[in-house]
Amino acid sequence: MTQSIPRISKAVIPAAGLGTRFLPATKATPKEMLPVVDKPAIQYVVEEAVGAGLTDVLMITGRNKRPLEDHFDRNYELEEALTRKGDTDRLARVRESSDLATMHYVRQGDPRGLGHAVLCAAPHVGNQPFAVMLGDDLIDPRDPLLSRMVEVQEREGGSVIALMEVDPEQIHLYGCAAVEATVDSDVVKVTALVEKPTPEEAPSNYAIIGRYVLDPAIFAILRETEPGRGGEIQLTDALQKLAMDEKVGGPVHGVVFKGRRYDTGDRGDYLRAIVRLACEREDLGPDFRSWLRRYVSEEM
């Protein structure tokens, strides 16, 4: 009898980083709370989790991250003020974030890398597959990635990572996967992983982006994983062990993503993400695009 694979319901979002690339804006404001048009970046990530059917969200936080908790909590004073004004549209938008999912929080304490952040989720996740979603990567809801990854994990077992083809000269910025083709054009089997290799060392130009669906066997491996590049416990190193020995926790597959992705961890890409999303909004797009055309023509 084939063993049933538990339905994935939990998402883990590491959010303990200091956001130094956005200083001084992030001196007192978590980088995850920086607005992308009119919502904080972190809300897009939670909405993506919910869209894929994951309604239990654990955030791995650190010091000065209280605004994250406040954002996903009720603000009764604000709601009451909007109710008195009869401002039902803004009231609905304010309540939207607190009604999205069941939110949980745990502090990472000493930040020792992504692998350590994921390990902090072990007591909450338990013995079931779960998703890890990095807040710097925003995936356009019109190009569902996480739901496809969940589908592959439930069919194949093991772990699933998100991959994207990048210019070979940029591969040193990412974890990189060696892969084998499968019967699905958008799915590959991962045979090895390397964290931020040089172009000469890279086994491919398939870069790991910030979405993972992981088998709980990852926790035992992370507990034994020594600090790697940068003196941090690297999730890539633990996934490499899973890829090399399927008996430990099943195979590792990759979903090759070719859709729209917005990188909010880089200042330039953050600005481009805001412009692209604003241009595509029905309420903002027409006027904003007209102004943008005029601005660009005047500057050229």
From TrEMBL:
Enzyme Commission number: 2.7.7.9
Single GO MF descriptor: UTP:glucose-1-phosphate uridylyltransferase activity
InterPro entries: GalU_uridylyltTrfase_bac/arc, NTP_transferase_dom, Nucleotide-diphossugar_trans
CDD domains: UGPase_prokaryotic
Reaction it catalyzes: alpha-D-glucose 1-phosphate + UTP + H(+) = UDP-alpha-D-glucose + diphosphate
Family annotation (SUPFAM superfamilies): Nucleotide-diphospho-sugar transferases (SSF53448)
The keyword Methyltransferase appears for this protein: no
Identification of the protein by name: UTP--glucose-1-phosphate uridylyltransferase
Gene: galU
